[in-house]
Amino acid sequence: MSIQTPTTNYRDLIERLPPDSALTLRNVSWEDYEGLLEGVGEAAGLRISYERGTLQIMTLSPEHESYTKIIERLVDLLSIRLRIKILFFGSATMKRERNERGSEPDACFYVQNADRIGKNQQIDFSKDPPPDIVVEVDVHHDSQDKFSIYAALGVPEIWRYDERALTIHHLKEGQYIEAESSLALPMLDARVLTDFLNRSQREDQYEILLAFENWLQRL
Asked: 134 vs 2, 38, 77, 140, CA distance in Å?
């Protein structure tokens, strides 16, 4: 659903949105965008993005959140087993006023820049580096229109999962190019990640994690 006229009654609109729906508002000021973020915070089951006057609000389903959780747990297990420092910031709001863009990914990780972030609990994207990996899960929505936001924010890598396959995208000269393997975690490629995520259609999370742990032991 798209609304062309500006409105400031965002919270009422959000409360009426059903799960797995998207609302697009045009001609929204940066001040209104920041006011909405302050009002709702990083609410569970909600993703808000902004690009030069266009505001998009998406509500999520439990299925969507389940895929996100599996990805996070796989990366967490890899971090522990391979002793790779990875910092997790979930769906932290990434925004930069000078770019007039902001977004909330489904998950994000710091790998190469983990030491630069250190013990920080809050990320200031006006001075801190962007996450090394951003995750977008597309169950009933298409996140590809958010790629330009992430490019402007300098995110080097996106993982996108659409229930059929996970694709990996690297930022090159301002555009995302599909790649076979992760830049931040080169032991992971799109085929392997797809296989473990697609197991959720026949196995539970515990079984998937055990299988992934066995796979890690063979590296």
From this structure: 26, 22, 18, 18
Q: Which of 134, 67, 86, 142 is nearest to 107 (CA)?
A: 134
User: What are the angstrom distances between the C-alpha of 56 and each of 11, 52, 138, 191, 215?
Assistant: 13, 11, 15, 31, 39
Q: Pull the structure tokens for residue 175.
A: 């555009």
* Helix 190-198 vs helix 62-82: crossing angle, to nearest 10: 130
φ and ψ of 25, to 5 deg: -120, 135
The pTM of this model reads: 0.91
- For the chain, how long is the longest CA-to-CA vector? 56
Query: What is the mean pLDDT of the segment spanning 150-171?
Result: 97
Can you tell me whether residue 215 is helix, strand or coil?
A: helix
Give the C-alpha separation, 145 to 139, whole Å: 15
